[in-house]
């Protein structure tokens, strides 16, 4: 599952940093039918976590009410340089992850 | 003579009925209409958000929703939720939940924040199956729940079979 991250490369210490992620995923609701009339099973990314240097800074529990190709923006305070690690998994057990490094300047 | 009498009687009866109904008509026109509506359709959100609140009271305020008034496509409605909070270790927003009034699954998503979030704000895109209200519910670190609602007019439902 490809994803696009939008994180500034360099920020000032203590700045509130916007972080945005968009993941390519159909977010099937389970209410749709295919051309042969068979129900398409529900398959959504139910959990998305973001860790910074190993600490969880954000988590989203999502349902079928999220639009396809879910995109989420949130904020966090950068006190030191480090790595942002996004991890997510969907209803059929597929997992994905994406990383970004963030450099904190004085 | 006979027909005239019948006409007068009819008019008198009609007038009498209108006169008797008049206060009732006035009353139902405004205030009681709302009361009756509330009795038939009580506020659905506390019940819909019960899984999150556990029945705790939901106060209105401190939460701000930014979403288009008219979303011509329910498949993808942008929404930003901002909560008034200092975001310190003692006082922060624990989670923000989006609740839909009439989607088949009312709980859209829950976003867990920490004091390190710095700003209690999230932006995302949601699905809406028809014109409805959306509630943003914030749980603060002290355990209180705050909320705000926004009505979104949807001209194309997210629940029609696409492609």
Instruction: Look at the structure and name the CATH superfamily of the largest domain in chain B.
Output: SoxY domain
Shape, per Cα inertia axes of chain B: elongated
Strand content of chain B: 25-35%
CATH class of the domain at 1-73 in chain A: Mainly Beta
Strand order of the largest sheet of chain A: 2-8-7-4-5
Give an overview of the whole structure.
- The complex is a heterodimer of chains A (106) and B (163).
- Chain A has a domain at 1-73: Immunoglobulin-like.
- Helices cover 0% and strands 55% of the residues of chain A.
- Chain A has no helices and 8 strands.
- In chain A, the strands form 2 sheets. A 5-stranded mixed β-sheet of chain A has the order 2-8-7-4-5, with no helix packed on it. Chain A has a 3-stranded antiparallel β-sheet with strand order 1-3-6, with no helix packed on it.
- Chain B folds into 2 domains: 2-40; 45-154, SoxY domain (Immunoglobulin-like), CATH 2.60.40.
- Chain B has helices spanning 2-29, 31-40, 45-48, 50-53, and strands at 58-60, 63-66, 70-71, 77-83, 93-100, 107-112, 121-126, 132-140, 145-154.
- In chain B, the strands form 2 sheets. In chain B, strands 1, 3, 5, 6, 8 and 9 form a 6-stranded mixed β-sheet that branches. Chain B has a 3-stranded antiparallel β-sheet with strand order 2-4-7, with no helix packed on it.
- The relative contact order of chain B is 0.19.
- Chains A and B meet through strand 3, strand 5 and strand 6 of A and strand 6 and strand 7 of B.
- Strand 5 of chain A pairs antiparallel with strand 6 (107-112) of chain B, so a sheet runs across the interface.
Put the structure in a nutshell.
The complex is a heterodimer of chains A (106) and B (163). With 106 residues, chain A is mostly beta strands. Helix content of chain A is 0%, strand content 55%.
